[in-house]
Design goal:
The complex is a heterodimer of chains A (288) and B (643). Chain A is mainly α and 288 residues long. Chain A contains 13 helices and two strands; from the N terminus they run H-H-H-H-E-E-H-H-H-H-H-H-H-H-H. In chain B, helix 3 packs parallel to helix 5, helix 4 runs antiparallel to helix 5 and helix 15 runs antiparallel to helix 16. The chains are: A mainly alpha (288), B alpha/beta (643).
Chain lengths: 288, 643
Amino acid sequence: MSAVPAFFGEYQSMVAAELRRLVPPDADAAVERSMAYTALAPSKQVRAVVVLLCAELCRGRAARAVPAAAAVELVHASSLILDDLPSMDNAPLRRGRTANHLAFGEAVAILAAFGLLNLAYATVAGSYEPPLAARLTALTADAVGPAGLIGGQALDLLATDHDISFEALERIHRGKTGALFVAAAACGALTAGASPESISALTAYAKNLGLAFQIIDDLLDVEGTSEETGKAVREDARKTTFVSFSGVAGARQLAGELCETADRALAPFGAKADRLRELSAFVASRRL
Amino acid sequence: MTEQQQDARVSELRAQLKALGYLDAGVDRFLLAPASGRRGRANVAVRSALRLGVIAGALLGPAGAIGVAFRLPGLITGARDALVLAVYFAAIFFIVFSIAAAVITFVASAAVRPEDDRFTLRGPRVARAAGWTLAILTLAYLTMWWRTANAGFGWSAPIWTASALVLAVAISLLLGHAARIATLGVLASNPTGTSLPPVSRRSWRLTLAGGAVAFVGASALLVATASTESVPAGVPPLTVVPTGIRLKVIAIDGVDPHLLNPSVWPDVAPATSVVGAVLGARYTLQPQDTIDPARAWTTISTGEAPDVHGVHAIETRRVAGLQGILPGDSTAIGRALRTATDTIRLTRPSIASRNERRSMTVWEIAEQAGLRTAVVNWWATWPAASRTGLVLTDRAILRLEHGGALDGEIAPADIYPALRSAWPSIRAGAEAKAAAAFNGVADRSLASILRRSATLDATVVGLTDALPGPVRDLDVVYLPGLDIAQHLLLSSGDEAAPSPSAMDARVAALRAYLGFLHGLLAPWLRPAPGEFVMLITQPGRVAVPAAGTLTVYGILPPPAHVEAPAIVERGTIPVADIAPSILQSLGIPLSRELAGEPRAAAVPAAQRYVSTYGPPFRDDSIRPGKPLDQETIDRLRSLGYIK
């Protein structure tokens, strides 16, 4: 199974509408067009869907969670722009298009990234009542900060052209991918007023799913094509990846086990968590 | 990289991932796994209940084995038996708790409906109530179990009792917790998809840790309490004050006191030519609650009630996979259970043995006190375990008939060769006596029954007389012949009632047998100075429990002088008084644990007491009992003892 689950459509459209509202595609300013270029580019919006599914699972309404989902997508888009910069991964392709810095120039791209990041915080702060907004903002900030995306990316840069330990690789993946998955699940649950126990179970789900997602990414870099993935492949040749440690078959096996673990974390929710299970099944078998 | 190397690498990475907090769902996976898929509520309830049953079986199986080890001594002979028994109990508890958990979760799920607006609030409360219900039921059961299984030491051993209760609480809470989780799983699987708050991710780890504590504690308790049982700590030494009396205890089964008239059983006053003070007494024994010979005669030989001495019935059971023996149960439920378990080959018949006896017999106490003793053909004496006394168990005759290596039938083993070489003449002499006494009986079937019984009794007497060694202080002999004859002659089975004349002939045959016995025992019935005879009779296997008799007489050693008639009627006493009377007459202090009182009129001696005699001496060697096990069963069946 490679295609996203069928139910993704309704959630994607909700998030896309919110993103279009937040980042109009027809803005005059270059930096705003640069922001929209990446934020509105075709994507699976897996993290945003996680937000909405977790909110619904905890008896919340998806509509209420849409701003949080959009914020997570904005953060993700911001990280993609920064990732592709020449000083970082220097990637030419992203989401099937020319990388942002190649389309708008490096300076505008950097500003666009910061614009998206701040827009994310502003969206969360302005969409919810203050106590919840504060918690969501803190969660998002943690996912972005030194313990999250920034920390992971910094370690990733240092690790390029170097052999690293498995623990260091996990730390990179946890920061670059896992942190935002976990934040997405927690944000969704929080918008629904979930109990700490629910958040704990969903965090376990997201943590395992996030790593599985990254392992599959590593696999796609080895096995996939640019047409399939929408980004440059074989870019990880200079890096230590999960595949370096376990081989292709081992990586796929462990990714599958992580997805199974994620499913087991959903056991207390019964059949209502089936959409999250479909999501993990998609992650385990994705080809794009 | 080879496939094997890759597998090893993946295993290593998996372990590293677990250490980093991945591959851990953080919930009660074991119990909630059934709720993870698309299953109906009933399906989830049954599956969760089965899983809870597995936990209960694993936790309570060892506890059950410990309890039974105390209640039924002789059942567990070693670690293998304990393990097998624990597995049996685990299976039983698995079934019981699976059913209980299924019922509780069904009731709980019926008590709160998903359509209810307060489902999310009430669901966890109902689950909690289900958990507490099972925990309280389990704790009540375990507390009662400890009360009956602790071998009576209770709060006299506060550390053990407190430890046991702590374990009981731990096990109860664990099972209650599991029931709560299972109920939550069932509620969460409701068709409306309404979710419940999940349980704490710490719960599974707590379950594991608590389970480990329970297991370790139960094992430690088993080891510690087993060693307490095998070491008779605190047993005071038995100091004998010599009375100068040698005692021969003759037990005759199947005696109707109304037949004991002078025409068949002349009064046994000592010979008038003997110089000395004659003393004697005759008591009527209160009826026992049983006609089972093993149970009745063990009560007599130990002076304890069956619940204390542990031999409940002649017919016991060996459980498949266990060396030990499950004591018999003569109740209707016990018989029904035996039939059921025999049918499925879980148990097979066996015969009451010394292994399940928990109390010392009079000859063992006398042996422990340093007296010279012998016991011949008493019930539940196999396998023989003696230090110095002579023991011919209830299987000794079979062993002497078959020859071969001893398997606990005779002790000490060094008397076996002499008895084996004397066996042909003993057997031939017994057959000759039986033939001489009953060949004249016209009815061939009656004659056959009488000869068979007479041969057996004469063999027992012959073996007793053939025992080597110096004069003994105590001889104890059991004669089953009259009971066997009575049973075969008078039990009608399902056939039509015998005619009065036929019945009269059979009663006459029993009278004749009593006369034969009197003649057979004549040399023993006329004691020399310093010798006493104690004649104990029981009614045997008759429909209504009847009274027995106890006759004691003898000649006190010089210079005693008693102005009294030879034998005086002394009234009715319980059978529990026999053992203390024997022990007191030998000058052995009495245990305060004995149920009866010595009858001073039997043989005069001062009363002294000790706190306990301790448990019977244990012979730890394993006695397979084959092939005589089956031979014994077949013979007892042919004699009507077991069906």
